[in-house]
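tool_call predict_complex ligand=flavin-adenine dinucleotide
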Amino acid sequence: MRRRVTTGCVLPCLYPKRGTLPPGASVPSTPGRPRFQSRGWLRGGIGRDSAVYAFPTRCGGMMTPESPSDRALTDLAETMDGRLVRAYDDDWDSARAPWNLAIDQRPVAVAYPAGPEDLRRILAAARADGHRVVVQPRGHGPSGDLAGCILVRTSAFDEIVIDQKRRVARVGSGVSWGALLSRLDGSGLVALAGSNPDVSVAGHVLGGGHSWFSRWRGIAARSIRAVELVDAGGEPRRVTADSDPELLWALRGGGGLFGIVTTLEIDLYAAPDLFGGTIVFPASAAGTVFGSVAAIMADAPPELSIFFGLTNLPDIVQVPAPLRGQTIASAEVVFVGTAEDAAPLLAPLLASTPVLADETRPFTIGHLAEVAAEPTEPAATIEWTAAITSFAGGDEAGLGALARAFQEATPAGVTVLGLRALGGAIAEQGADAAAVAGRLDARFLACAGSFLTEQRPADPEAVFGPLRRALEGSTLGLTVPTFLTAGQDLTFSFPPESLERLANVKRRLDPGGIFVGNRPLGPGAAATTDTD
Ligand SMILES: Cc1cc2nc3c(=O)[nH]c(=O)nc-3n(C[C@H](O)[C@H](O)[C@H](O)COP(=O)(O)OP(=O)(O)OC[C@H]3O[C@@H](n4cnc5c(N)ncnc54)[C@H](O)[C@@H]3O)c2cc1C
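tool_result ok
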């Protein structure tokens, strides 16, 4: 018989609140951010030698942050319709902080443009003072090094227009997934959203984007139909498959290397029925649960998506008593279809081992974020990720070893291990191969994270070493760019021929290298006009 507990507030408690953060970290106040329940997983990075691409990997290449020549920035503050926040402003620390509070980014200024005219002014000031420009709408994918950069926050670009007939959403580059999904609620249409409602649509799709619906409709970058941006010369461009197919290919996964995106048009897909939610199991059953999910996903229809993993819950009152301080295994399910159609697909998982809680139910797209119920409050974390291809000894043995590695890493402070079943449209090239982030030929995406507190500082090797060792010989070496972490460049996501192609687009669009993406092309060789 199934024992059920209410897990509603279990996983929010994982995330350190103000007062438990590392010294120096602060919680930025971001008015207007939507609030959802929190539960979650984390992502992170694997190590690999970098290939060689010679665009700036950091902001400060053109001029040191100590440069006395900040006159244009001073003028910019006076002429902008929006606002320029400088180091002497009261809200400097909250303006510059990214979502991950363990990353201390120090740009020369933070700009809140009111519209495209402000973007032109920002670019002119950057050129005049010798600064570079980085765009960061919501701060979930920071690079860490913003010295010498003007950081642009696009919150004013908040347009959402749903064209039901053409199945296209026109979305401003400041719009979060939570806002777009709320607008889609009741329409019977879905977009290729990820698991977190606080992430921006632009940051997600421009960086590739793994979605609950990616097995069904592909990596989210593929859903970009048109991009409107302000280019390095301050001019507006509308990029489509007709106007500039090579730039569109690059923008579909190449992130913020080519311009300041103001608006995107993305595909919507008909999905009249959605079913899903979280199923919680005892940690002791993790090997069985993981093996069962792998067996189901080996020949599941692409409409079914399952994330699964292990979580160490804190011993605090907010966690239901039976689970306090315990480790749980869980599977998060999203199915495009009815409960009746999902039932036979999930039956082997539910029968494989006793279930602590089964929260699966029909839902509408506006409630998608509740499936994973990830944190929306900023937190201090370290992260690690790898794309898994296969296990020499079979799925059950390999995933079982990974579950044991999580236990081994627990004393060092690992908080969550999340696995996402890939395959389906993610492994297919797509009819037109029109996205640099078009395809990932791996079976699972593994992500692990550790929440940092003053008592628990970061030691990535102790936390993630056991997981990395358990996956030796089983990983692809490349991953979806939105899963890269601070310090990683696009050589961890794309093969050399794609990087060379991206470098060519970069040379054409931004020969001076004014735009710095959070995930640069990589250090080194190819011919460039950059001044680094
Ligand atoms: C809790 C959590 C859950 C996540 N879940 C998922 C998930 O399910 N699937 C997934 O694929 N990823 C996921 N991510 C990763 C996330 O999608 C990426 O980090 C994404 O880039 C974040 O976008 P952002 O705007 O919120 O972050 P930011 O750090 O603000 O932006 C990221 C980068 O995108 C580029 N960019 C964004 N907007 C523009 C623009 N207007 N013009 C030019 N460049 C721009 C820039 O290079 C920028 O540095 C998650 C991250 C977190 C923290």
